[in-house]
Amino acid sequence: MVPCKICGGESRITHRGTVLGRHQATYRMCVECSYWFIDQPHWLEEAYSEAIAAIDTGVAQRNLRLSPLLTSVLVGMFGPDGVYVDYGGGYGLLVRLLRDAGLDFYWRDPHCQNLFARGFEWDGDRQGAATAVTAVEVMEHVTDPVAFVDTCLRETGADSFVFTQYLHDGTADPAWWYLAPEAGQHISFYAAPTLRTLAHRLGMAYHPAGTLHLLTKQKFRKGAFARAVKFHRCLYPLRRRRLPPRWMQDHEQLVRRIRCAA
Ligand SMILES: [Zn+2]
Description:
Rossmann fold, binds zinc ion, 34% helix, 6-stranded mixed beta sheet
């Protein structure tokens, strides 16, 4: 028996497929919480030889779309003075865009080189505890979701975790585009019951809003997060009014750091 890593329940094989064009993958789904996962993906080192897969053509438009959405939602939920860490921040484009929007955002990614947000790597000693962690296109890459979220929270001192995720509906469709076996990086897939169970395991509340999700130890009214997401466009100008852009201030800060180091 291969137990589910989220709830410990029994899992069953849904199908076998070919990953990266040559590795045999066994997909399993938990009968209790519908966590769908690849059992023992042994090719991850090869899959991450290129941190952001070539077939991820959505990388630029995703960050441009998410920047105003996250700005509006995070200020709405946590106020204008929050400190945020983007886990799995990739090339740092989203962190740079969110700092430009006025949010105090930092980058963290053990697998990728920071290109756009250099100088704003997360350092808990310098920044103190974070308000929330964001994880965009990350949760489908992790082998142990409970341990991953727990680590994110412990490393940053945050009590909230905001992430993107396409959900499946509990039916195991081997042709679902999100499985993306060509790149070999997507190994964990969630349904709504999976995320409710994940939250329960971590002692957190789960707030869904389409493909955006919030796990939090804070008390929010039911539906508050979904409303913040639904009305993010009309609330965006109001939220931005409380946030001066940081690009010039960031520039000056980095110049000072270079001068001090010289
Ligand atoms: Zn389960």
